[in-house]
Amino acid sequence: MKSPWPTKKLKEIFQENKKSPFKVEDADNHTLGYPFFTSGGNVLRHSEFLVDGENLFLSTGGYAGVKYYCGKASYSTDTWAIKIKNALTKYIYYQILGKIRYIDEIYFRGSGLRHLQKKEFLNIEIPLPPVEVQRKIVGVLDTIQEAIEIQDKIIEKTKELKKAMMSLLFHYGIAGLRVKELLSSRTGELEKEEIEKLIGKKLKKTEIGLIPEDWKVVKLGEVCLKTQQKDPSKEPYKLIKYLDVSSIDNENFKIIAYKVFEGRKAPSRARKIIETDDIIFATVRPYLKRVALIPAELHGEFCSTAFCVIRTKKELLKPNYLFYYLLTNYFIVRISSFQSGTGYPAISDDDILNEKIPLPPLFEQCEIAEILQTIDQKIEVEQKKKALYEELFKTMLNKIMKQEIDVEEIHL
To answer: Inter-axis angle of helices 176-183 and 192-199, to 10 degrees?
Structure first.
């Protein structure tokens, strides 16, 4: 076992920057402004800077958080900006980051909004190896962080591609791919005649925009089956699976959890029976896109009445095609315009079922869905890679700080 590194308390290597006069709402987000750090996760912009060089920015209210930045920057009143002396700033950043959960649990207290107990926090002991070792540690962890950032960019670009593809596919079908190629080589909108020549089809104007002549426009309810409701308490000892809005991952639009109840103990909102390939669409705050396709394992189970359960007539409308259409910004904006109420604005099932959708021939619905599924698979692969890098980062950070890895033997 290597001999332990000497330690110092944070207050011995800590230098506080002046308190900020700016509130979070003072952010102007001007593109030419300076990074503006707050207690939240996002970095905003501000036209004035308060510090320059290497600094750490710690959240002081809500939840523990730490950010590192080198350069001119600004920060809000709820952010603690500090400089580090007699150690590498980036090394101390990684030390704090490695303890962030502990800091959140131990040093954030208070009724209502929790706050960082600064005096206690500054008594944390930090191991301080020689500067050259600190530099090596930073290099190792930076390399993994850079890999995570690359994955983030790949995921973001792929999501942008998916969004662009959805816009074209739901207007022009598979031939919309040729429209994309032309759009990438010129500026400005294409004329209707140009698009018709590209896709080899005549277009017609409809209430939902230009679509190919062989497509139809229908009310969603016209191509859907009536779904049923049931009171699970009538089967008191049957175990049921139950979905509510927290069950949906509204980034990847998948079911990430469900709850299991005995029928007699099921929530009163457990009323709607779901079947394989049903689509559930949250009617509360519809703009949050809590939408999911029901997998076979949940066939015959229950969801909350806060969902509209959409069951397509499969000989007319393919569930996968509809699922993707319901995620388009066009549909979400349209359907959100019907919401009413304050606090938890909502729409009704009828609002959704009365909305008009484009209905291509079945074979084209399948092709459109397959293209978008392929893009989703690409996103999922890249997200898994990112998760692996994140796990590697946590493992390396933990092992390095415990001196379970000899940093000097690592070659970058």
So the answer is: 120
